[in-house]
Amino acid sequence: MRASLIQIAVDEDESVASRRQRAASLVRDQAGSDLVVLPELWTTGAFAYEEFATEAEPLEGPTYEVMAKAASDAGVWLHAGSIPERDPEGPLYNTSLVFSPSGDLAAAYRKIHRFGFDKGEAVLMGAGREPVTVRLPGTTVGLATCYDLRFPELFRSLVDAGAETLVIPAGWPERRRAHWTLLAQARAVENQAFVLACGTAGTHAGVPQAGHSIVVDPWGEVLAEAGAGEEVLTVDLDPAKPAATREQFPALKDRVLGLAPPRH
């Protein structure tokens, strides 16, 4: 399985419509890949809070239409990153879209853990409630977004639902880049799964982005890592590796669930 992570740069002088078309062109360039991944909130920038409401769109809005066609044109499974979704009956959501090679919507995931500590995304967007997996030929993909990476219980639920590959689009800041790499490897090791973590380059509302998109195998080995700028990271993955790792080192079967609270 060939995966391509498009670490697109967010330039504040580039319009959302222009960046949308540029991202679609980059997706089409990956026609030889099986799975293509874009970052979190690449239309607006993950820290451009004032843009969320003005650029929010319905699920089947402009980004949906452009990305569905790009997936179909390239003949790839496309994780189109996330958009600020405007639910006509509720709040905004940070919503990821996954398209099949025919351009059909295969899955949508509303980010569960919102970043901001009672500011920013945490108050401007609603929280998703449901973990989401999607079946691709040869692997089951579990979906998570950026800040979700810090919450291992979400990834356990994805693995329990059959996930063997964990895809994490992000708008991760440069000042916490060490955490990005560490947590991506930890989620791979503890879940014995591939991790495909795709970040943005550039600057979002004055916040420099980490870049350094990364692909980690089920043993925690870094298979590929991008630099800081705009880049496409392509790597070939053996879809049998998670099952082989879990058989060779069957740690997941030794999980102890439902522990009683600690005694004081």
Automatic annotation (TrEMBL):
PANTHER family: DEAMINATED GLUTATHIONE AMIDASE, NITRILASE-RELATED. This is Hydrolase. Belongs to the carbon-nitrogen hydrolase superfamily. NIT1/NIT2 family. The lineage of its organism: Bacteria, Bacillati, Actinomycetota, Actinomycetes, Kitasatosporales. One of its GO terms (molecular function) is hydrolase activity. Residues 1-239 form the CN hydrolase domain. SUPFAM superfamilies: Carbon-nitrogen hydrolase. Coiled coil: none annotated. Keywords: Hydrolase. Signal peptide: none annotated.
